Amino acid sequence: MTRTLLTGNGAAAWGARLAGIDYIPAFPITPQTEIIETIGKWIDKGEMDARMVTLDSEHSMITAAGSAAATGVRVFSATSSQGLLYAMEMLYTVAGWRAPFVLVNVSRGLSAPITLEPDHNDVLAARDSGFLQIHCSTCQEVLDSMLIAYRLAEDERVRLPVIVNLDGFYLSFTREPVEIPEHQAVRDYVGTYDPENTLFRASSPSSQGVAVLGGGPYSYFRYELHLAARNALSVYDEIAGEFADRFGRRHPAIEAWRTDDADIVFVMMGSFATKARAAVERLRDAGWRVGLVRPRLLRPFPAQLLQQLLEGKQGVAVIDQNLSMGLGGVLHSEVASALYGHDRAPKILASFVAGLGGRDIADEEFFEIASVVRQAIQKGEMPPPRLLYTETELREVRKLQAIAHVEYEELRKADVGKVNGRNAGER
Amino acid sequence: MKAASRILGTAFFLEGYEVQDAPRYGAERRGAPIFAFVRASHDPINERGIIRHPDLVVVADDSLVPVPGAGVMSGVDKHTVVLVNSGDSAEIWKQRLNFEGDVYTLPAEAADRAALRFIGAACAGAAARLLGVIRRDTLADAIRQELADLGADVVEVNLAKALAAFDSMQAHEARVTPIKPGSAAQYQPPDWIDLPFEDARAAAPAIHAGATSVEVRTGLWRTLRPVIDHDRCNRCWWVCSTFCPDGAIAVDPDGRPRIDYDHCKGCMICVAQCPPHAISALSEQAAQTAEKAGASE
């Protein structure tokens, strides 16, 4: 075991290497490319025995990944953002084939306008595809999740592809100390790909993806896919438990940080959740009883565990790093549906949208979120959803609009309402 | 600066710290500002991304300091130490920035433009001494580790630069002091607003005028300058101007091509394509020096 500094991309590459992958179909996209470059370098140096093929698009890449997985080899691929969207048709298709492999998505906001920095609208677009989703918050978690993901994907009770998600820049290019486990220990844990689990072979004719079906048979196959994804909940607990026993690191389906005695709980996914963790510590220092809940598994969604963790809490702030146009935060609605109808569910479930396109979240903003939730608890009234956005940021946009010759007459009609006139300390 | 951040990150790590180092940049292009952040702590690090209140700011390119978009001095206060790679004195910078904290410069580095590609190592070396918790040997180990892939010669010259910078800061050892993060008991609330609905004519990300890119002088990115020898040019009318991917070559009515140096990025495609080899490539720096000399004569 070595402890060294690795980027999230480096950790993903190490995960693929240790898992003993055979085949990597690839197509470049920022901020994911470093993963494929790292693996390519290892293959060139003879440090890794795998076949890498560059495809002509992400659509072909996922087709190749699914096809190869169906023939019984261990497959890895990686993409990001627009690339994931370009592959979308095949994401649904290969999941329908029940082809087990691991795809890393390095989250990056979607066009238009274009950005390089992260939010989760890309990976959430694949939410209903049949791929399972593990969301990481540290570089160590990226490496560990890769190993867990292969076990999960290939388990005969599941047999589905898995997306391991990490945030662009905040993990992809950020180095942190990462423990790289011994190769043999990983081999013992991950095991070898069981080719009996898939039946697509040369000289043994079979067909993946059958002809056009009517609603009855179609429903059967789609619902079986859903049941396999549901199975993944208990299989995940078992596999992650075994991982903890072997490697000493726990990666539960939902991370709970100082929630036991908390009155107020933040709910967040991904790497920005570690910022929430830091804010929780500051709030605790100031006497607030605040905690953090971070779903690592988004699909399958661990609704029951979430109910248990949030039971009896006074208020919850879901901080979504995504935006479903015309609805709001996606995680907020998922949490709401998990809690609905439970007697001891928190009365206040506030929605905040933040971190779109990598927009930073300041400590003070977490403090203010806690303050908004506390006031809501006192009043017994749900606060309106809020985008974390400051007057200073709007001024910056006005400058850009001036450069872009935006018609100012149109803008002046709109009134900017200040909502936060309170002074610090008043609460 | 990515190299500098990684050298510092590794040095901290070798000294037993928990570390986080991360570069940050926009779309790739020559001359674009690049930032990197390094955090070190004896406890696990939960903070991530931008450092809003730095203890130490290292500036490798002093031309970025006055660029508002670069935000070099954002979040500094009088406890912050600023290290600038500059030939101007620390006093001048303190005045210029109206800054109360400590400022240090790297005059030896600034004087030697040929050494610019080692500036990362030099910055890391000086920063390590200012931090005061990284030993000289550890710094050297970190450089060997980080630059090993570039070969022994590159490691040696970077080592020399970094250690010289480390030694030059002897009198200022351990000037950097960590501050505690802001308290949740008393804080400045964010100036949140309700984002108003605006007409799509304003709120769609469109540019409502043509040729706005003309205002961006992309010629500043150039490191090589194509220069046309009009005696050799056979007035073919089209080859260089057609191949220019930026449309930065126009042809006069009499067939003379003219290069728009405000927008030529120096890709040298025209140099490669010109049939009579009438376009040559000059170092931009040499061309500018020659121009200045010509102007002063």
Task: Walk me through this protein's architecture.
The complex is a heterodimer of chains A (427) and B (297). With 427 residues, chain A is α/β, with parallel strands linked by helices. Chain A has 2 domains: 2-198 and 211-247, Rossmann fold (3-Layer(aba) Sandwich); 254-391, Rossmann fold. Chain A has helices at 8-18, 33-45, 58-70, 81-86, 88-97, 121-124, 139-154, 183-190, 215-247, 272-285, 303-310, 330-339, 363-379, 391-403, 408-413; strands spanning 2-6, 23-26, 51-54, 76-79, 102-107, 132-135, 162-167, 176-180, 254-257, 264-267, 290-295, 297-299, 315-320, 348-353, 386-387, 417-418. In chain A, the strands form 4 sheets. In chain A, strands 9-11-10-13-14-15 form a 6-stranded mixed beta sheet, sandwiched between helices. Chain A is globular. Chain B is α/β, with parallel strands linked by helices. Chain B has 2 domains: 2-172, Pyruvate-ferredoxin Oxidoreductase, domain 3; 220-290, 2-Layer Sandwich (Alpha-Beta Plaits). Helices cover 32% and strands 14% of the residues of chain B. Chain B has helices at residues 2-14, 90-97, 107-111, 119-131, 136-147, 152-168, 200-203, 239-243, 269-273, 284-296, and strands at 18-24, 35-41, 56-59, 81-84, 103-105, 193-194, 224-228, 249-251, 257-259, 279-283. Chain B has a 3-stranded parallel beta sheet with strand order 3-4-5, sandwiched between helices. In chain B, helix 1 (2-14) packs across helix 5 (136-147) and helix 4 packs across helix 6. The longest helix of chain B is centred in the middle third of the chain and has 17 residues, at 152-168.
